[in-house]
Amino acid sequence: MMNSDRNKYRKENDMGKQVRDKEVQEIMDYIMNKGEDSEERVYKLFKMNGVIYEIACNISRNQNSETTQNQIRKFYDYTIKINSKDEKKAKIKLAMMMPQIYYAIQRKVISSDSPFVKFLEDSIDKLNKTEDFENAFNRFLNVFQAIVAYSKKSRSDRNE
């Protein structure tokens, strides 16, 4: 690969990362209840071809990310078992997900630069700092459920 090709590839990769970071930030703003909760905003996030859909498609489309449907489901199953009513225990359980995430990265079943990892890291960080934990945690679960559903749909569409 020539130097100019390598630079072009890096620029495209950086632009893709910036777009993913922006999408993840939009999701974080929703989870943390920042901004107006208009029907339009929620629709933009959750609709087919919306922000969450694009993140899920990016996860399942990028075979190099090695993020398997089983890994996505494993982390989702772990989070739905957390009781948001007991904030202290819930925050501890969320923090305990971080070693599991890094273990999965070391095993190469998920990629450290995956938007899925960024979503989990940012969510766990923000949820552990929020004053309105129960509401934020429920929003996080809604987003996570949509990612699970859309990544499954995206994979089945790709395999047809």
UniProtKB/TrEMBL annotation:
Keywords of the record: Antiviral defense, RNA-binding
GO biological process: defense response to virus
NCBIfam families: cas_TM1810_Csm2
UniProt-recorded Gene Ontology molecular function terms: RNA binding
Protein name: CRISPR system Cms protein Csm2
UniProt KW RNA-binding keyword: yes
UniProt function note: This subunit may be involved in monitoring complementarity of crRNA and target RNA.
Pfam families (alphabetical): Csm2_III-A
Keyword Lipid metabolism: no
Protein family: Belongs to the CRISPR-associated Csm2 family.
Lineage: Archaea, Methanobacteriati, Thermoplasmatota, Thermoplasmata, Thermoplasmatales
InterPro entries with a match to the protein in the record: CRISPR-assoc_prot_Csm2_III-A (IPR010149)
